[in-house]
Amino acid sequence: MFDLIINNDEKNHYDIIRKLIRNSTKIYISVAFLKMSGLDLVKNDFKYAFKKGSEIIFVCGQNFYLTEPVALRSLYKLFKQYHQKTLFLYDINREMFHPKLYCFVQGKKAFVIVGSANFSKGGFQSNIEMSMTGEISTSSRIYNYCKTFIKKILQEDNSIKLSEFYISQYERRYTAYHKRVKKAINQANKEIDALKELNIPLIKKQLVLYNKDEKGLKDFKERVNNYAQAREILNMMCEKRINSRKDFMYLYELLVGLAGQCGLWYSGGLYRKKTDVGYSYKLFLRMVRSIRKNIQRNPQSLFKLGRDYTNKIYGLGVNVLTEIMNTFSPKRFAVLNMNPLTTLAYFGFYRFPEPNNFKPETYDRYNSLIAELVEICEFSNMGQVDHFMNYVYWKDAKKKIRKK
Predict the structure, then answer these.
(1) pLDDT tens for residues 106-135?
(2) CATH code at 2-181
(3) Contact (Cβ atoms closer than 8 angstroms) between residue 244 and residue 282
(4) What are the b/e assignments for 327-364, b being 16+ CB within 10 Å?
(5) Contact 212/395 with Cβ under 8 angstroms?
(6) Which pTM value belongs to this model?
(7) Rounded to the nearest 5 degrees, what angle is found at the Cα of 107, between the Cα atoms of 105 and 108?
(8) Torsion of CA 188, 191, 194, 197, to 10 degrees
(9) Cβ distance 5 to 123 under 8 Å?
(10) How many CA atoms lie within 13 A of 164 on its CB side?
(11) Where are the alpha helices (DSSP H) in 8-117?
């Protein structure tokens, strides 16, 4: 019959392990690391077991120098006092040593604990830990597995039998390692403290104001209609023969607008390079057809495909590329321009590079973030996130981010 041990107010690993140590004649313990906090809890129980003649085989790891030299030395002295020579440290140059096995033999039965608890106070009592425990026969397959496992790791080339000399050697490495790690952790904590995290309460606050703004909501309905018209124009570019730059420019200007006149798309300044784009209109049309044909690709792949075209069309940036992607599939692809990036910084997210410096993997990460905002804000698609972030940009983000 097997059961679970979970550290809580009613029962924890320590309560069970200390009783099993006292009542067992042979004990196998194999753990990733040993700490003085854990040894202090059961040291008297070990003494009791030794005095009545129990044999204890104890193996712990040294990866990442989590095992404490003071605990090794204390346990070594205890083993030596009772003439036990079965305390081992697993070779650090071998594989990662990560088991948490406790096996207690009482006559023809054994009790096994296998789970997450290391030999520490946290593992025994205070950490969130869970282990499987159960009573088995010493003739059972599980018990034989446990014995075979211990036997294998005690092979001469895998485990080191502890001595004062080796503990001293380990202690020197432990001290050097933790001196460096402490410095690295302090530096990392400083960097982490300097990072801002996405401010969900601020987003929610702005969202309430956005949803109450009747003019803005009316503007979004108009935007939805405009993008529906933009999709018709892009489909026309894909399906109809456009033989002249003049015919192309008529359609393209409907999308990007003219100086002093808005287009169907909403990214700012799209019209500025329209003349340059017009000279490469055949390549632009091939790009639109290719994007529509491959619209089921993932964001990173489709963005890369589009960038292969925009890099060849002078004056064409990722704002137009992502407008095309979003127009064809507003639920899957986010529009990319400086306004939403500025708003993200205002919301506490780290600063992305300039839009035209985005790599495909950067766009993929940005697109995933916008998808999360769709869920947080309960929006219909990514186009509404762009509309919301433009609302926040002009209302607050532009002014406050520029001050920093």
Answers:
(1) 999 999 999 999 999 999 999 999 999 999
(2) 3.30.870.10
(3) no
(4) bbbbebbbbbbbbbbbbbbbbebeebeebeebebebbb
(5) no
(6) 0.63
(7) 90
(8) -70
(9) no
(10) 3
(11) 13-23, 36-51, 69-81
